[in-house]
Amino acid sequence: MEVRKLTVGYGAAWVLDQVSLQIGAGEFVGIVGCTGCGKTTLLKAMAGLLEVQDGEILLDGENIFSRRFDRAVLRRKVGMVFQYPEYQLFAQTLEKDVGFGLKYSRLSREEKQERVRWALEQMGFSYEEIKDQSPLSLSGGEKRRVAIAGVLATKPELLMLDEPLAGLDPMAREMFLEFLEGLTGQGVSVVMVSHNVDALAQHAARIIGMKQGKIVMDGSCQEVLGDSRALRTIGLLGSEAAQTAELLRANGVLPGSGLPVTYEALRDEIIGALTGEKGENR
């Protein structure tokens, strides 16, 4: 997908101002920024859910706002997990809820059932144990996982998620992030808005930073999340590992420059500083 000079406003206020970006096949992209900077609006526009004032969004080279564009293609190729997906559960059973997005697909009944089974199992559920339960019987975190499963069941080529980690316990969160990484290995593009900088540092390959409706940072995790000064200009702190490394450098414990964005990288740097060794000799 390519976004070209996208402008979105509500009344006299501009929420997105001339935003341009590209998402390649198999990319895991994290979007960060303080509340109100336009992250959610950008995702909704990319999903074709908002009216835009100017600009284009191209899916496989076709403008999704063109009158000639088949919106069914957008629904099939792009999946969107909203910030509070658990509030969208409505069917009598979990199987029906997760399978709702497949209602008008050309899949057979058996294929739809297998998709639902796969999606629920990817989110840590036992299909046979949970398929006939009511969504109302679940906890908040379980509802969120079921709602995410409903989007996964459609197997989109571009999966966009707005704060999907909220409400997930640490183990479920890590399993979900590893699953997303696995999807990118199959060519699926993942775009995730999150305030969990540490999760993005560990799993995303690219980070986009936004401020006041504009993209002000776009690069690898190390380039963006390791730049603590630039992150502060958009109201964010770096990963916990980067913050720890910054403190150690300021107190002369660690030499050098640049900030590691994961604890694994910080650990290696500390070991290197203590032993004076690098690479395979550490």
How are the elements arranged and paired?
Layout: E1 2-10, E2 13-22, E3 28-32, H1 39-46, E4 54-59, E5 62-63, H2 71-77, E6 78-81, H3 94-98, H4 109-122, H5 127-130, H6 140-152, E7 158-162, H7 170-185, E8 189-193, H8 197-203, E9 206-211, E10 214-220, H9 221-225, H10 228-233, H11 240-250, H12 263-275
Parallel strand pairs: 3-8, 3-9, 6-7, 7-8
Antiparallel strand pairs: 1-2, 1-4, 4-5, 9-10
Helix pairs in contact: 4-6
Walk me through what this model shows.
- By secondary structure, the protein is an alpha/beta fold.
- It has two domains: 2-237, P-loop containing nucleotide triphosphate hydrolases (Rossmann fold), CATH 3.40.50.300; 239-275, no CATH class.
- 39% of the residues lie in helices and 21% in strands.
- The chain has twelve helices and ten strands.
- It has helices spanning 39-46, 71-77, 94-98, 109-122, 127-130, 140-152, 170-185, 197-203, 221-225, 228-233, 240-250, 263-275; strands at residues 2-10, 13-22, 28-32, 54-59, 62-63, 78-81, 158-162, 189-193, 206-211, 214-220.
- A six-stranded mixed beta sheet has the order 6-7-8-3-9-10, with helices on both faces.
- The longest helix is centred in the middle third of the chain and has 16 residues, at 170-185.
- The chain is globular, with a radius of gyration of 21 Å.
- The chain starts with a strand and ends in a 7-residue tail after the last helix.
- The mean pLDDT is 90.
